[in-house]
Amino acid sequence: MSFFFLLNILWFIMCLPIITIFPATAAMFGVVRQYVMKKDSAVFIPFFRFFKDNFKQSFILGIITFVFIYVFYIDFMLISTLGNVMQNLLLASLFLIALIGTLTFIYIFPMMVHYKLTLWAAIKNSFFFSIKYFPTTLLSIIFIGLMLVVLYYMPVAFLAIFSFMAYVVFLICYSRFHKEGELAKKHQLAQE
Description:
By secondary structure, this protein is mainly α.
């Protein structure tokens, strides 16, 4: 439990400047990955190494996400001024775009720290994984929702809940990464 507490506190402190939320989250997922793969259970040194290693990519992801949310908000405000038929059609389109973005976002940090990919490749693969393994994606979303409910009713959970969420989400995603790796090995053997 101290692992999650220390990681959560470190993540929170590194998120305080606001602009470092995405690099801090990537670092948290990197530490969790090491923990899951039983490579390392340390927190501080790996956190700052992952923070540095993933800074540029995760910072750009943060900018893209902020722009996406801002444009989404502006579109929503503009659509709300339209008539009923057009408004319903455009709201359905916005909902679909938001759903795709949310599904993709589930895999983005685990993908970013597990594979050495460009940002575009990480986004693209996260989207494909979220669709291909939809039940797993849905399980992650339900888990995150439950943890947010726990946080609402038990604010003291703030001390460890975000790192615990990262741990469980990475575990869920890692099971899909592992399965995909096994499928690739079988396919390669079949080709030989």
